[in-house]
Q: What sequence folds into this?
C-alpha cells in the first residue's frame, strides 16, 4: 500500500510501526530496510510501543509475550475476544499522534487526521472492513487504499518486489491464533520454545480452549487439520525434540512462578520480565538448571 502511494506521489506525512515485541523475524528484518526506503523518498517513520503502567502481577512487562507469561494467559483472540491490536498497536499509535504537531493542529481546527488502513479486497478483509466501516471516529478519517484499487495480497507482493524491496510476511505475532500451520513450521527454534512456554504457563487456567489455536480442526470442508494446541502441533511435526518440549512444559513455568514470587517480595529494585526471558532463551530448551543462573536472582532482596 505505502509503496504504491509513495510512487504515485500521494502525500504520506508519517508512517508508524507498532512493535508488540512478538513479530516474525522476517518482519523485524524488513522494518529497517523499509524505513530506509521511505527516508530516501522523504517520508518520515517511527516505531511506537505500548508502555504498560499498571501491573496486576509482578514483574513488569514491556512486550505482549512478557504480558502473557507474567499473567499466565493467552492472547485475547485465543478466547474469541478479538485481537490484541487495540492495546498493542492502535493505542500506542494514538498516543504518538497526540503529541504530533500536525495532528494537534488538525484537531484544534475541528478536522480529522486521515489514517491509512491496509485492509485489502480479499474476502477475509471484507469481513474486517464491514465490522468497522460504520464506526464514526471523531479524530480520524479512515481510508482504505487497497480496497479503492481492488488489490489483494498478491498484488501487494508484486508491487513491493517491483520496487526492489524484499517481500515480508504478513505482520502478525508468531504465535497468533490466526497463524497457519505452515507459518509455525517456518519458525526458528527459539520462537517454538516460547510457544511451548506460553501454553504451559497458561494451561492451569484454560477451561474452554486447548491452546493458542483454540480448538482442534479436523479438516472438514477443505480446512487444514490441526490440533487446538500449537505445542501439540510442534510435537506432531517433530519441530522440537519431545524431551525438550516436556522439559519446558514441566520445569519452566515452575521456575517462572518461583522467580515471580521472589520479585513480588523484593524490597529492592524489581527486575522486569525481560530478565527471566533472557535466561530462558539462553538455556535453549533445557530449563532444569535455570534457577541456578547467577544473574536470575541477582539484586532481589526478600522482605524480612
A:
Amino acid at each position: 500500500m505505502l509503496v504504491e502511494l509513495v510512487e504515485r506521489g500521494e502525500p504520506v506525512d508519517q508512517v508508524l510501526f507498532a512493535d508488540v515485541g512478538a513479530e516474525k523475524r522476517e518482519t523485524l528484518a524488513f522494518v529497517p530496510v523499509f524505513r530506509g526506503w521511505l527516508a530516501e523518498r522523504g517520508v518520515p517513520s517511527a516505531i511506537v510501543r505500548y508502555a504498560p503502567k499498571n501491573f496486576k502481577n509482578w514483574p513488569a512487562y514491556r512486550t505482549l509475550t512478557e504480558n502473557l507469561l507474567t499473567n499466565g494467559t493467552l492472547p485475547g483472540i485465543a478466547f474469541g475476544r478479538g485481537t490484541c491490536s487495540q492495546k498493542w498497536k492502535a493505542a500506542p499509535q494514538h498516543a504518538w499522534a497526540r503529541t504530533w504537531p500536525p495532528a494537534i493542529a488538525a484537531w484544534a481546527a475541528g478536522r480529522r487526521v486521515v489514517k491509512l488502513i491496509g485492509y485489502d479486497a480479499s474476502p477475509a478483509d471484507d469481513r474486517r472492513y464491514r465490522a468497522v466501516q460504520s464506526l464514526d471516529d471523531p479524530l480520524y478519517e479512515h481510508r482504505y487504499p487497497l480496497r479503492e484499487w481492488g488489490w489483494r495480497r498478491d498484488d501487494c507482493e508484486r508491487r513491493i518486489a517491483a520496487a526492489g524491496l524484499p517481500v515480508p510476511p504478513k505482520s502478525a505475532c508468531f504465535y497468533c491464533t490466526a497463524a497457519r500451520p505452515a507459518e509455525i513450521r517456518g519458525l526458528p527454534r527459539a520462537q517454538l520454545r516460547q510457544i511451548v512456554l506460553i501454553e504451559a504457563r497458561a494451561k492451569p487456567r484454560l477451561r474452554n480452549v486447548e491452546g493458542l489455536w483454540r480448538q482442534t480442526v479436523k479438516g472438514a470442508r477443505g480446512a487444514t487439520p490441526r490440533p487446538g494446541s500449537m505445542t501439540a502441533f510442534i510435537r506432531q511435526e517433530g519441530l522440537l525434540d519431545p524431551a525438550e518440549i516436556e522439559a519446558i512444559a514441566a520445569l519452566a513455568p515452575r521456575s517462572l512462578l518461583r522467580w515471580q514470587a521472589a520479585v513480588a517480595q523484593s524490597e529492592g529494585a524489581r527486575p522486569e520480565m525481560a530478565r527471566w526471558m533472557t535466561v530462558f532463551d539462553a538455556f535453549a530448551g533445557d530449563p532444569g538448571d535455570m534457577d541456578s543462573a547467577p544473574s536470575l536472582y541477582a539484586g532481589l532482596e526478600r522482605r524480612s
User: Anything to note?
Assistant: The mean pLDDT is 93. The chain has 13 helices and four strands. The two ends are 59 Å apart (CA to CA). The longest strand covers residues 15-18.
